[in-house]
Amino acid sequence: MQFIKDPNNPIYGDAQTGTLFDVYVTKGDEKRLRMDLSTRADGCVSVAYSADGIRWSAPQTALQPDPASGWEELVNRNCVLRVGGTYKMWYTGQAHGNSYIGYAESADGIHFIRVGSEPVLAPESPWEGESVMNPCVLLENGMYRMWYSAGETFEPNVLCYAESADGVHWNKSPLNPIFERNPAKAYEQDRIGGCQILPHKTLGYLLFYIGYRDVHTACICCARSQDGVTDFRRCRQNPLVAPDKGTWDGDSCYKPSALYDADANRWRIWYNGRACSKEYIGTAAADGDFTINDFE
Question: Which of 2, 18, 161, 272 has the fewest CB atoms within 10 Å distance of its CB?
């Protein structure tokens, strides 16, 4: 499989929107795609919609920061999961050099209200350092499962895992951190972070994540695990998406969000690319599906 960047990249964001980053794309209502994203200019999380994954509506603010809380002067790096008639959001709150994970709900998927005044996840363990961020949550067999990044606030270092019966009270795995850098791999010799995990019909779970060659140079990678927690095997084609020098994503390709179109037998990845201080959203696609032979 070879991921080819869309020739129209960046497909979303410009000088007027300012930096857009850390997208989370899901299949939404009315056959539309939903993109949850972070908007740096206002420190908010927003939502946009698309019929084709290329042309997106203007961002609508979904949740604003609450500086009075003491832990969320900025909000960003969120995911949204619809359960019945309720949209559930887990998001990153940042303040005073630390990051936490908060929780909010919505009836319409656009206007979210916090559930509680305290974060639902905070850094505690040595490997979590000063931050927990970038939640990715699935609901399986009545259990909420969260994969999250942890470590430094500027860029996280490892991936961790937690479970919850209600999405609010979480139990961190004793196996944490469940996924760490492999310094033998040039594309992630510095650190890893920013993941999305998806169930796969034959491979268990696919983990799309950021690999950092150094703290300023990032690319998009993939690994598989039978249970989503242990024995991750990296994709032989890593990195799947890498910076192209001299272009809009010439410095880094960050935070992948992937979807598989079974009808077209095609994978698409959305990500935020950076050149200097400009950061917008692009996409890349590959025909075919992953097989076990694609992994180490």
Answer: 2
